[in-house]
């Protein structure tokens, strides 16, 4: 596995972004007059240490904490490198470290599961961090990409780190741990804060504007709505790709259809055979 980190680039005064491989994840650095905060931590404890060293060399003020936006490895597994500082994540993240399959995943990334650490300042809804002349708001707007998505807001810079609630470099990752029906509502929490000059830093890809965010919100909602419509027509999952009108490419939709059908089935919505009328 090849790990790397680009140099931090300044997006707005005191707001920086670097890109960590192997997953192309955006790493944020928010700098105030007296302190700095890192957003997301990379794919391994060793990479987290490299991110910390790079952030400290750029910040010019003490690093006082790190935030992980959700439980996926590329954002979360470097958190151990910050464990002597306050670390913030949703309260659901600790359970993610007990997930089946973590041992194999950690071995592939070059460490053991016991090297990982959960956030030591878990939160349910919101937290504010003072960086001196600049405060950062860490908010859980609801379930979406995962159960524990956090958004990191810098009000005086009009910058929002969205985690994987938004993605620019590829269609949003709608995996088995997503909450497809609720995802647009979580995005509505972000969109309510967005102005014309707001910069949104997605989990992957280049920063985006409010038009991009509104569009992707509509596309995610359309996936769920289209599946619900097809189920109402009696279309089964295996036939849905050809039968539907989709906002994303075929590979993306083929991957999400079993998930969407299962989530709607849990609500009691399943395709039913319609008998012909006499």
SSE ordering: EEEEEHEHEHHEEEEEHEHHH
Q: Number of helical segments?
A: 8
Strand content: 15-25%
- Principal-axis shape equals globular
Q: Tell me roughly what share of residues is in helical segments.
A: 25-40%
Q: Tell me the structural class.
A: alpha/beta
Oligomer: single chain
Q: Which stretches are low in confidence, meaning pLDDT under 50 for 5 or more residues running?
A: none
Rounded to the nearest angstrom, the distance between the terminal CA atoms is 63 Å
User: What is the CA-based Rg, rounded?
Assistant: 20 Å
The biggest sheet, with number of strands, parallel, antiparallel or mixed sense and barrel status, is:
8 strands, mixed
Total strands: 13
Average per-residue pLDDT, rounded, comes to 96
Task: Explain the overall architecture.
The structure is a single chain. Helices cover about 30% and strands about 20% of the residues. The radius of gyration is 20 Å and the shape is globular. The longest helix is centred in the last third of the chain and has 23 residues, at about 210-230. The chain has helices spanning about 45-60, 75, 95, 100-110, 185-190, 210-230, 235-245, 250-265; strands spanning about 5, 10, 15-20, 25-30, 35-40, 65, 85-90, 120-125, 125-130, 135-140, 150-155, 160-165, 200. Helix 6 (about 210-230) packs across helix 8. By secondary structure, the protein is an alpha/beta fold. The N and C termini lie far apart (about 65 Å). The strands form two sheets. Strands 1, 2, 3, 4, 5, 6, 7 and 8 form an eight-stranded mixed beta sheet that branches.
């Amino acid at each position: 596995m090849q790990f790397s980190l680009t140099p931090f680039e300044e997006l707005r005064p005191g707001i920086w972004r670097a890109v960590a491989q192997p997953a192309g994840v955006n790493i944020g650095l928010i700098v105030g007059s007296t302190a700095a905060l890192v957003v997301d931590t990379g794919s391994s404890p060793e990479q987290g240490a490299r991110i910390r060293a790079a952030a400290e060399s750029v910040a010019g003020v003490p690093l006082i904490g790190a935030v992980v936006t959700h439980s996926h490895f590329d954002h979360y597994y470097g958190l151990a490198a910050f464990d002597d500082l306050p670390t913030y994540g949703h309260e659901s993240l600790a359970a993610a470290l007990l997930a089946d399959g973590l041992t194999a995943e950690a071995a592939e990334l070059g460490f053991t599961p016991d090297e990982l650490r959960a956030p030591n300042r878990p939160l349910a809804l919101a937290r504010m961090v003072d960086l001196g002349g600049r405060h950062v708001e860490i908010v859980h707007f609801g379930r979406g990409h995962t159960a524990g998505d956090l958004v990191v807001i810098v009000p005086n810079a009009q910058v929002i780190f969205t985690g994987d609630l938004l993605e620019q470099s590829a269609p949003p990752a709608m995996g088995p741990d997503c909450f497809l029906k609720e995802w647009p509502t979580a995005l509505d929490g972000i969109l309510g804060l967005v102005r014309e000059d707001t910069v949104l830093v997605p989990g992957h890809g280049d920063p985006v504007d409010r038009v991009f965010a509104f569009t992707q919100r509509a596309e995610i909602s359309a996936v769920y709505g289209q599946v619900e419509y097809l189920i109402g027509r009696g279309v089964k999952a295996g036939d849905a790709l050809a039968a539907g009108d989709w906002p994303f490419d075929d590979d993306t939709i083929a991957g999400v259809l079993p998930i969407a059908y299962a989530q709607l089935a849990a609500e009691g919505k399943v395709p039913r055979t319609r008998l012909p009328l006499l």
